[in-house]
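Lab notes, practical 5.
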Amino acid sequence: MGSSAISPILNLVEAYEYLNGASGELNIRNAAGTDFIYYDNLSGPFANKDARLYGTIIYPGSTFKGQEVQLQAGVKVWNATSNSYQTFEGGLASVYGGAAFPTGDGKLLTGSSGPQANQPEVSNSGFYLRKFIDSGAGTSSRGIRSDVWWVHFRLAEVLLNASEAALELGNTAEAVTYVNRVRERAGFPANSLTTSTLTLARLQNERRVELAFEDHRVWDLKRWRIAHQVWNGNATTLTPWPMCCFLTAWCAPATRATASMYLRKGCRRATVRRATSSHSTTTPSSGTAFSTTIPKSFATPSNSPHHS
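Output from the prediction step:
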């Protein structure tokens, strides 16, 4: 939107809860915390979330106007000598291979839609805005042949206003009925919030995800008197990664012992491609293409492409 001047960021994406009631932080490790979660596709980490996410944000693996939005930020290569990752980035739609990268795997380096930090026409966060962007044929984000109305006051806001007022007055049972009507429309089961689980913080998050990019957030934070806490400039707490990156790891059977891994930067996601003599893929135990998420602090790769 506006040459990608407005790009959603990771902390908003993670504000959208999972439909099972879990917090919205992307699932990157198993319940025991002993291994990464392995996904089969780019959109895997975003599955089974609050449906308002899908109507608000274009995320890696999603489509727009019938085409997949190609989001991949580059490649991180593990350097055993320095015990750290090296970052390689290219131009839009570039390939990790050829003369520039002779040891590359010949696959995508940087997506045609970014993200890139220094490119004004593409996202530099790893996400795009979907809300208010007309998906009709021939339409443009610059308002050409687009007919998307700006709604000044809609029913969801009325219900959230009523819920917040009731909660502040101590009428929690009434507040729950209003907010659950909004949540049910987003795919949550009936009575997903109860009098024991509804808090002001939960209502504040409901307004954030329901009314995202509708000119409410700054005024809500000011009237709640928490703007100074949310926008405190602390990069380790409430500020997200500056770039959300997609990671791909690859290693041949001959190098499995050392697992020299090529990691494509991206939204904490990694795809492990284990080459076989026939260049085919099978099950995870015998050599497959599969995906895993990578934590915000990259871990040292183990002796195999996936953790045992």
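Observations recorded by the TA: The chain has seven helices and twelve strands. The helical segments are 10-13, 51-56, 155-168, 172-185, 200-210, 217-223, 227-230.
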